[in-house]
Amino acid sequence: MSDNPNKADKQMEKQIFISGDGGLCVFNLLPPRQLGLQFALISDRFDFYVDEHFKTRRRTLGFIRIWRKIG
Fold first, then answer.
1. Most buried residue, 32, 46, 66, 71, by CB count within 10 Å?
2. Please, what is the angle between helix 32-56 and helix 20-29, to 10°?
3. pLDDT tens track for 5-62
4. Which residues of 21-55 are buried (b: 16+ CB within 10 A; e: fewer)?
């Protein structure tokens, strides 16, 4: 991390921590309906992070020329 707390805080917000071992414990403790709800919430948060990523990093390829091979 960096010495600048603002930069460190922003970097922590971009990271998602999901432990594989924690997921295994969840499978044993929750019935299927609650498990589906938990994964839906995780998926919703992940979608938010992906959307933010693409909003902040707009890139363009420019013009693409496609040529047919002759011969």
1. 46
2. 150
3. 676 666 666 666 665 555 556 567 777 677 777 777 777 777 887 777 777 776 666 7
4. eeeeeeeeeeeeeeeeeeeeeeeeeeeeeeeeeee
pLDDT above 70 (res 63) = yes
Helices (H), the chain: 5-14, 20-29, 32-56
Of 42, 37, 34, which is closest to residue 16 (Cα–Cα)?
Answer: 42
Q: pTM for the whole thing?
A: 0.33
**Is the CB of residue 25 less than 8 Å from the CB of residue 34?**
no
Among 19, 2, 20, which Cα is nearest to 11's? 2
